[in-house]
Amino acid sequence: MNFDTYEIWLATGSQHLYGPDTLRQVAQHAQAIGSAWNASGRLPVRLNVKSVLTTPEEITSLCREANQDQACVGLITWMHTFSPAKMWIRGMQLLDKPLCHLHTQFNAEIPWGEIDMDFMNLNQSAHGDREFAHLLTRLGKARKTVVGHWQDPEVLERIAVWSRVALGCRAIQELKVARFGDNMRQVSVTEGDKVAAEITFGVSVHGYEPDVIARAMPGADAPEVATLLAEYENMYRLQPGLMAGGDRRDSLVEAARIELGLRNFLSSGGFHAFTDTFENLGSLKQLPGLAVQRLMADGYGFGAEGDWMAAAMLRACKVMGNGMAQGTSFMEDYTYHFENNRGYVLGSHMLEICPSIAADQPTCEVHPLGIGNREDPVRLVFTAAAGPGLNASLVDLGDHFRLLVNTVNTLPPPATLPKLPTARAYWEPHPDLKTSAACWMAGGGSHHTVFTQALSPEFLEDFAEFFDIELLLIDADTRLRDFKSRLGAQARR
């Protein structure tokens, strides 16, 4: 996930009414903002400051150019002066990239002793941006609005969030998901309408029988297998039996072969997300565990039991959080802990939790798995780091897609888990388990989620805004009655 080839554009609006000197100052101010923001190191991609736009033709041309330019992932607009919004109609109708409306002005303070009408004409975004926003609302144009002085760190942080979301939107629009086998039999939430998803998000889902992985696997004595085994030994604490000469070393060799086969197939096919299912493993000797965990750590999306929606959403979130200190993983609400009238969740899965969320160095272990009818699979075992996070679930409700988001506080488990051979996360959901679970189930959320400590709800709100899908947030302020009222209003629309 290399961001170096991407950029966002700043389009500054004005008009010829105020003369060439004003337009020169507008251009200088836009360039100053661009230089400062690029030098800050806070943006994930470069900000490209475009020429000041003063006519409908210039605006339309720029929007067409943004659509066609593969480097451009989104457009920021700012009306430095009054830019009559009818000039923007055609351009905004054509623009198909994420849009951020920056409502700022170049000066932070009014120069009380020197202010005159020339100053007022130059610095009139206070009503220039309102004119523009009216037009966007009239058009029903999705956008993020950021208000405040451009030197305010909070303003730059919100621009950075939007920039990352724009990258995530690009990723899912171009995403190919490989589905090895079908979904787990008789399961509802992992189905979904793939045609509707491709229309809405751009993501395409491709089905394969699992033996395509087996055919891409190298032999046990291949040099790349030895190289990967050495990498395992360097990165993880290996269970004694998995070490060279150990009685379970063959299991680790097989896990390495599966990882290399998966990587070979996904890379050659241009896939950045995938699913599998324990009910359809073909000739694979193990349910992929270690391979899936490591591929997620490298940025691939994944969904267990054929859950292609979870895989696609995880890939988008991985891109949004690329380079950030905290991690993001596939997750499942597994079991509850009730204590002192409070409720907690132990999240996990059979094998497939991403080590990017690990608090400490994972151990690499092999244990029996009671389902799948295969050899004991190798997996990484660890506990997630403490801190704030959220769970997100993208679901197909038949007539529309819904994105549910629940903020959580990740905690160290109150005791060790010596007999639990899986990676796990332990959290207290907001506002409390009773309310969050009741809201989640009322909203039709999945048991499979994207668990992230890198992203805040703002990222997913921006994501949902661009794709025009429903987002329901469950956080510390949520009340069940209000939440159900929102669901009722949505049903009546």
What's the SSE blueprint?
Blueprint: E1 7-13, H1 20-40, E2 46-49, H2 56-68, E3 72-79, H3 89-94, E4 99-103, H4 117-122, H5 125-139, E5 144-147, H6 153-173, E6 176-180, H7 194-200, E7 204-208, H8 211-215, H9 223-235, E8 237-238, H10 249-269, E9 273-276, H11 290-297, E10 301-304, H12 308-320, E11 328-339, E12 342-348, E13 363-366, E14 378-381, E15 387-396, E16 401-411, E17 424-429, H13 433-442, E18 448-452, H14 457-467, E19 470-474, H15 480-492
Parallel strand pairs: 1-2, 1-3, 3-4, 4-5, 6-7, 6-9, 8-13, 9-10, 16-19
Antiparallel strand pairs: 11-12, 11-18, 12-17, 13-14, 15-16, 15-18, 16-17
What do these coordinates show?
With 493 residues, the chain is α/β, with parallel strands linked by helices. The chain has 15 helices and 19 strands. The strands form four sheets. The chain has a six-stranded antiparallel β-barrel. The chain has a five-stranded parallel sheet with strand order 2-1-3-4-5, sandwiched between helices. A hairpin with a 2-residue loop joins strand 11 (328-339) and strand 12 (342-348). The longest helix has 21 residues, at 20-40. It is elongated.
